[in-house]
Amino acid sequence: MIYLDHAAATPMDRRVLNAMLPYFSDKFYNPSSPYIQAVNVRRDYEDAKHKIASLVGGKTDEVIITAGATESINLAFNSVNGHVITSAIEHPAVLKCALNHDHTIVGVDNHGLVEPNQIKSAIKPDTQLVSIALANNEIGTVQPIRELSMIVNEERRRRAMDSDNTPIYLHCDASQGAGQLDVNVARLGVDMLTLNSGKIYGPKQVGLLWVSSLVKLKPLIFGGGQENGLRSGTENVAGCIGFAKALELMTEHRGHEANRLKKLRDKLQSELSGAFPDAVFSGHPKHRLGGHLHISFPGLDGERLVFLLEKRGVMVATGSACSANKGTRSHVLEAIRLSPEVADGSLRLTLGHLSNDDNINKATTIIIEEITGEMKRVGRC
Amino acid sequence: MIYLDHAAATPMDRRVLNAMLPYFSDKFYNPSSPYIQAVNVRRDYEDAKHKIASLVGGKTDEVIITAGATESINLAFNSVNGHVITSAIEHPAVLKCALNHDHTIVGVDNHGLVEPNQIKSAIKPDTQLVSIALANNEIGTVQPIRELSMIVNEERRRRAMDSDNTPIYLHCDASQGAGQLDVNVARLGVDMLTLNSGKIYGPKQVGLLWVSSLVKLKPLIFGGGQENGLRSGTENVAGCIGFAKALELMTEHRGHEANRLKKLRDKLQSELSGAFPDAVFSGHPKHRLGGHLHISFPGLDGERLVFLLEKRGVMVATGSACSANKGTRSHVLEAIRLSPEVADGSLRLTLGHLSNDDNINKATTIIIEEITGEMKRVGRC
Predict the structure, then answer these.
(1) A178-196: per-residue pLDDT in tens?
(2) Does the model's pTM come out above 0.90?
(3) What is the CATH number of the domain that holds B234?
(4) Which of B6, B27, B28 should we substitute to test contact with A (largest number of A Cβ atoms within 10 Å)?
(5) Were B223 and a residue from A70, A193, B247, B348 both cysteine, which residue would form a disulfide, CB within 3.0 to 4.6 Å?
């Protein structure tokens, strides 16, 4: 089996699982219980949160552990009630949250890049949130978050000069980027950052929202007052410990891994490009996740290709995992103006820890064979 | 170590962990991915949900898997916008959610029992929700949910006769009761039921809200549209598999276990009662969880007792784990009119899988020794 769908899910790192296991058994205590064993569990939880905060360049009390990126995104949008701006290629969670506010959805260029000046033009007097993902989950395009940060900061300064206290925040969903890109909140210049443990070889159903002290967050879930009253519910101790370990491993190996994946991806792209001159590669040629390859075969059926490759032991995605099983065309591919004929023949190949020279070579051969066969079948060559 | 705090947290059953482990490694796929391995993971997830639904007497599409009881409760309250009724001894999650609505908080008797007629009298024309826990987490009192159901149903019929389409629902948080009481939704007669996997030897940060088809639920968390659009976010496959296993084991052994714990608890109560004639036992003498023992030693300091017992290897709680570490007096003990002097000397001993004849005998001896010593110290005997 060759797994080429790391953007949809990653296997938990064995070291992450080992870090978590004690909290399922010996250290199962409720971190709010009063005896020393439980107090130690609370300390381990806080230490893990502290490590997570440090790894994104924030403080412990700026981090809220959630049940995943979707909850984090909803929590970020819950901090504002005015106008919001996002892009046409965001994850459904961001787009759905934006729809619950007065909103502007800015378009992207053919490579899926958000144009900072479009964001700037979309800012209205009551704009309170700009939410842009670090990297797109379908085509891998990496956005100029730092430039967006400067625009938001400039607007914030302008308002301050006008004694206008309407807040404006920049939220960045870095779920897809964290494995390969720097997610330091200060260097990105964001006010809120979403991360997803399940995308970086950590436990699933764990995420975080990092929130600068600027932001006035309102809870979505009320109760016992955990996470400084911002997210109630008994703390996910094992999940947080696992997330911290995953983020630590990720940060340690990020540079090397990003290079490794980019080399493998470039070779794969080059071979597929050579074999299929009509294939369309989407995503920015330069500003793109190293492990991402989005390729379209005009006139072929992406879902059928997934099935054919699966029979040969190669696991790939059509669009994003979130919309892939709904039978609708990807909003991302529509936004970058791929024609329906091209979009419908798309595969997303995403490399990661399970990828190596050997299995990428094998996958390349299999993909070329299957696509060639399919092209013959439908009379495209 | 003798663990007497099963109401705060339970260790995960080894069989539950074994059922979950494959979904952390080999079966880590995103259930929305299109290839057969991921489709199989989706099927396993749906099968687990189906099992969970069957075990509470509901249908699969009536169950929403959440990140725990607190989220489930918030989701239940999100289904209504009118007046809500709850009791003074509910979990903070219920009380905080009630405060976000027009609300009536009914009192309880000295045993912590909700009086159905008080609920009936509190119903107003725009009452949309009655939310009462199956069993109280501090004193173990079990509420007459079936009687409350008849009251809510009667009001529903009355409204229907008047062509009044204002809905009214009964929500029951059965987080504390599920280990020892029947949680069949039809037999309870509820419209919504909350369960918490972490209280029944399943994984933490997993819960469910069962919702009858009567209820028009509105999502709290928007995104990819998972859980029939009612709770977005990649499904918690491992968590749901573990929850199903825990609920299955629980259901299988519930009757036997409830009896076993009741016998152990009654023996413990009888010995402590004999040794300390002035001790006050709270919770209903008859309608009470079998494994629950709430005991107060007037004039002693509960927090100090926890510390003394911890040094002897016995882990007990003062109030509820949720409020225990906040330095405030328990709202439950206030509601049952325990005087501050009595309330402040309270311990909650909750038995469970880790309890047996041997360690309960040992704990009894240690508790008697420590309390006796403490009474001498403060001059109470």
Answers:
(1) 999 999 999 999 999 999 9
(2) yes
(3) 3.40.640.10
(4) B28
(5) A70
